[in-house]
Amino acid sequence: MLTGKQKRFLRAKAHHLNPIFQVGKGGVNENMIQQISEALEARELIKVSVLQNCDEDKETVAKKLVAGCHAKLVQIIGNTIVLYKESKEKKEIVLP
């Protein structure tokens, strides 16, 4: 789990990022989890946008993404989910 200090640090880093994935009507599927996992490996910190037409609520989407990608949930703000996963090859973010 992330500490409060680590979450604050990651929230500050994620502030300027734009969402690179959108979860829509189809909800979360295996292909999306695979792509988000690859993006997390490359970037470590990403934002995912939950569209209005999504069948599932944002908390459910966040839980599925965290479980599927083995990532950590930084925050859910509005309809945006911020995820963090330490990269194996390209580690850039050093947590406090």
TrEMBL record:
Mind telling me which Gene3D superfamilies this protein's record contains? YhbY-like
The chain positions of domain CRM read: 1-96
User: Which SMART domains does this entry report, sorted A to Z?
Assistant: CRS1_YhbY (SM01103)
Q: Does the keyword Cell inner membrane apply?
A: no
Q: Does the keyword RNA-binding apply?
A: yes
Assigned keywords, A-Z: RNA-binding
- A Pfam family that the UniProt record links to this protein: CRS1_YhbY
Q: Which domain of life is it from?
A: Bacteria
* Name of the protein in its database record: RNA-binding protein
Q: Which organism is it from?
A: Anoxybacillus andreesenii
